[in-house]
Specification:
Layout (H helix, E strand, L loop, with lengths): L1 E6 L2 H12 L15 E4 L4 E6 L4 H6 L5 E5 H7 L4 E5 L5 E8 L10 E5 L2 H10 L4 E5 L6 H4 L5 E6 L3 H5 L2 E10 L1 E5 L1 H6 L1 H16 L2
Parallel strand pairs: 1-3, 1-4, 7-8, 7-9
Antiparallel strand pairs: 2-3, 4-11, 5-11, 6-9, 6-10
Bound molecules: 1-O-pyrophosphono-5-O-phosphono-alpha-D-ribofuranose.
The site of 1-O-pyrophosphono-5-O-phosphono-alpha-D-ribofuranose has 10 residues, from strand 9 and helix 6.
Length: 208
């Protein structure tokens, strides 16, 4: 069995469609229920839905052989996995954002609220800016509105969340997309099956 961790949600559904087109279909996954694990014995494949930020944990520890995770998660947590392919979906940017009337004049330590503390620290290190990092777990946009931080470092896709909270992008510094990842030893033991998927998905992306 090839164990595949899919990120729950719209992105995961797109990813499943790619696997299906690669010949690894699993019709039961389309049943409307709350089940999380689905398998197709004939195709020797088992899918499970996990929280997007948990996919790399399953893959790193070998509970999943392969999975799909955002480049943001891979850069933030640096899991010990192989990154096999850029799927060219789930595209967005990591950005610094803040209130329209805020401009960083560099005179004092910048207060930065984010879920992505490593990505934010690395970015500000790279431009030599001192920051005070404030780790939050969600609704990051609220932080500068309430004066908890000066700016945020977060994912921007359509920009709607920022706009509706009267914030604006200051700098987009990192493009993000979904990546196919593999457990290192599973990649050696199940290389044939994994490579079949990789080459089919590559073809799908190129023909898109
Ligand atoms: C992300 C991010 C923003 C939003 C940006 O949150 O944290 O809040 O998406 O998207 P937009 O530019 O299209 O408005 P997500 O929906 O992933 O939920 P989270 O807060 O649980 O991370």
């Amino acid at each position: 069995m090839l164990n595949v961790a899919l990120p729950k949600g719209r992105l995961g559904e797109k990813v499943y469609a790619m696997f299906e087109a690669a010949g690894f279909e699993c019709p039961s996954i389309k049943e409307n229920n709350r089940k999380l694990i689905f398998e197709n014995e004939e195709k020797q494949v088992r899918y499970f839905w996990v929280k997007p930020s948990d996919v790399s944990i399953y893959v790193e520890r070998g509970a999943a052989d392969i999975g799909v995770a955002g480049k943001d998660i891979l850069l933030e947590y640096e899991p010990n996995v192989y990154e096999l392919l850029d799927l060219d979906i789930g595209k967005c940017h990591m950005a610094v954002a803040g209130p329209k009337d805020f401009n960083d004049d560099g005179t004092r330590t910048l207060r930065v609220a984010t879920k992505f503390t490593n990505i934010a620290s690395n970015y500000y290190d790279s431009i030599g800016r001192d920051i005070d990092i404030i780790k939050l777990n969600g609704s990051i946009e609220i932080a500068p509105i309430l004066g908890l931080s000066d700016v945020i470092v977060d994912i921007v896709e359509t920009g709607t969340t920022l706009r509706e909270n009267n914030l604006e992008v200051k700098t987009k510094f990192l493009p993000i997309s979904a990546r196919l990842i593999a457990n290192k030893s599973a990649y050696n033991f199940k290389r044939e099956q994994i490579e079949k998927i990789v080459s089919s998905i590559k073809e799908q992306i190129e023909n898109d």
